[in-house]
Design a protein that fits this description.
single chain, 107 residues, alpha+beta, 3-stranded antiparallel sheet, 5 strands, 36% helix, oxidoreductase activity, Fatty_acid_desaturase, Fatty acid desaturase domain-containing protein
Amino acid sequence: MHHTHSSLPHYDSSEWDYLRGALATVDRDYGVLNNVFHNVTDTHVLHHIFSYISHYHAMEATKAIKPLLGEYYKFDDTPILKAMWRDTKECIFVEKDKGVYWYKNKL
């Protein structure tokens, strides 16, 4: 679910670099499951950029990087079951545009 969202690009080798790849994810709110999964669900962007930061500092670090990332930080607050349903309907195939792939749902 963190790598499947219609706003997220995916890259082939001609366009990919570490930071682009790391930012091709979205933080999601799993409700009470955030704690069960040690907040890797709602701090997934941080996890991609700084995977060595301990989960018990992830919330604090996420708050610190949000202003730095600006529009490149992605968060989806859609309830998780609704997001799963939506993404199975919207992210059916990918369309390539000059080395960048985007999820689509219509030909």
